[in-house]
Design brief:
6-stranded parallel beta sheet
């Protein structure tokens, strides 16, 4: 079995609440688009404590190819985000955020603090670094701050590499990648997807409408992902 699928299946057995109460580990998400990138970096993704299946197409593909039923879980307000931030606010857990541009992360933090009363965002900064040394220095800084929860949104591969750097530097809290969540939160407050969009499984269509730059990769997912997914299933490559 693919190490990526194996990790997704094992992660699906845990509830978000169990993960949060466990207090330690780094977790990321794969959708049909990012799955194609992850195939080129299997060792990186295998280093994570958990991988969530993000996207209805990936969930269906796993069901068809492996006969396994997994839940669609994303770091957005339709899934993990409200659970994570509500838990942090209620239990007094501190949160650090590294994501998007500085102006956007500042707006997102303000919106999150309005939405989740008592939320302690102890540190935040943009997700852009000049080089490896600055990333290493930032990883050490985060470890020294001891945030209970770390949210990282820097785009596929970069965010995983950075979160792994933080763990390797000695971080002992819970870390999640979040893709474009912080950027979205800065633009439209905490709620990005309308209820009717989530209810009818039209999240990718809505995002294509809201963010034209995503259209190319969603088309890629629709046509390339099914073929590549089955090829990996049959060949292990």
């Amino acid at each position: 079995m693919s190490p990526l699928i194996d990790k997704i299946l094992s992660t699906d057995k845990q509830s978000v609440e169990q993960i949060l109460k466990g207090g330690e580990g780094i977790f990321t998400f794969l959708n049909p688009v990012s799955y194609l990138d992850a195939l080129k970096h299997k060792e990186l993704f295998s280093s994570f404590d958990g991988i969530f299946a993000d996207g209805g197409l990936l969930v269906k593909a796993i069901k068809i190819a492996y006969g396994a039923t997994v839940k669609r879980r994303s770091f957005d307000m339709t899934s993990l985000a409200p659970i994570v931030f509500s838990y942090a606010a209620k239990t007094g857990k501190s949160v650090a955020i590294v994501a998007t541009k500085q102006e956007m992360v500042e707006k997102a933090v303000a919106n999150l603090e309005k939405s989740f009363k008592g939320l302690n965002i102890c540190y935040y900064r943009n997700g852009y670094f000049k080089g490896e040394q600055e990333m290493d220095d930032e990883a050490k800084k985060i470890v020294s701050l001891h945030p209970d929860i770390l949210i990282v949104g820097m785009g596929i591969i970069k965010q995983e590499q950075f979160l792994l750097k933080v763990r390797d530097a000695g971080y002992q809290g819970i870390g999640f990648t979040c893709g474009g969540f912080i950027h979205q939160t800065a633009q439209d407050k905490a709620e990005y997807y309308p209820d009717w969009v989530d209810k009818h499984g039209l999240r990718f269509v809505y995002r294509m409408y809201k963010e034209p730059h995503t259209r190319k990769r969603y088309v890629k997912a629709a046509f390339v992902f099914p073929v590549r997914f089955m090829f990996e299933k049959l060949t292990g490559k």
